[in-house]
């Protein structure tokens, strides 16, 4: 992924937060919103969205920027909630105090609300010349965020006594990856449903990578607590399969992502970008070619 897209993503997020606030925004809430989004992590979801839109020859930079910012703001909101005491009780995020530790639970909850609502507002205004596109974008992100298999359902499954692991992972992790590639396709005028399987497979790969980090990583290196799944009794593929088998499984999933890519105007560009993003998921020190 080029540095140019990294810059575009950060610019889109800065612009989005600016548009979602004004002089009437309480200053503590404003600081809380900024800290929830910056400095960011890998920004993999907006980068994937941009990659799909570019490969489909979008020609709508304003809509792509709005959609990229929206999906990342929603992701950041989910992290704020995930860290709170009612879920993971995490003290750190991205090597800093988690939002509820820094600002208190009440302000963290309000910030996550503002990010969720703001993400939908961005999509509703993504392209003033194409209101039907805006409706499609809002519906797409809402569908992947709600109680019907969206990220809200994924978070809620953690409070159930029993859970189907594939259902849990598809909702908690896969839903926003599906949203990312579908939003990118919609911005380019391509059928969103053609990209759903690709998003689902990227989400599956990301989940395995996240499970490996929880088993093999360190708080210092990854900027968040590790070993959480074992301590809370949650499903973890790396714990179940062992780290070596889980890594091999991850590499197989990455190959599956590449095989799932639908036809588009710039397939070679998309393949290289998807491969770059998915290879970021491999644990440090793993040579994909040797697996």
Notes on the protein architecture:
This protein has helices at 3-19, 27-37, 44-55, 61-83, 99-103, 105-124, 131-143, 151-157, 165-187, 196-216, 219-222, 228-232, 237-241, 243-260, 267-279; strands at residues 92-93, 96-97. With 291 residues, it is mainly α. The chain has a single domain (3-283), classed as Farnesyl Diphosphate Synthase (Orthogonal Bundle). A two-stranded antiparallel sheet has the order 1-2. β1 and β2 (96-97) form a beta hairpin. α4 packs antiparallel against α9 (165-187). The model has no long low-confidence stretch (mean pLDDT 92).
Please provide a brief summary of the model.
This protein has 15 helices and two strands. With 291 residues, the protein is an all-alpha fold. The chain has a single domain, classed as Farnesyl Diphosphate Synthase (Orthogonal Bundle).
Please specify the SSE layout and strand pairing:
Layout: H1 3-19, H2 27-37, H3 44-55, H4 61-83, E1 92-93, E2 96-97, H5 99-103, H6 105-124, H7 131-143, H8 151-157, H9 165-187, H10 196-216, H11 219-222, H12 228-232, H13 237-241, H14 243-260, H15 267-279
Antiparallel strand pairs: 1-2
Helix pairs in contact: 1-4, 2-6, 3-4, 3-9, 3-15, 4-6, 4-9, 6-7, 7-9, 8-9, 9-10, 10-14
Strand arrangement, major sheet: 1-2
Would you give the CATH topology? Answer: Farnesyl Diphosphate Synthase
CA-based shape: globular
Helix percent reads 55-70%
**CATH hierarchy, class:** Mainly Alpha
Given helix and strand content, the structural type is: mainly alpha
Elements, N to C (H/E): HHHHEEHHHHHHHHHHH
Work out the radius of gyration.
Answer: 18 Å
Q: What's the mean pLDDT score?
A: 92
Tell me how many strands there are: 2
- Determine the CATH superfamily: Farnesyl Diphosphate Synthase
Strand content: under 5%
Question: How can the largest sheet be summarized?
Answer: 2 strands, antiparallel
Number of helices: 15
Q: How many angstroms separate the termini? A: 23 Å
Unreliable spans are none
State the CATH architecture: Orthogonal Bundle
Q: What is the count of distinct domains? A: 1
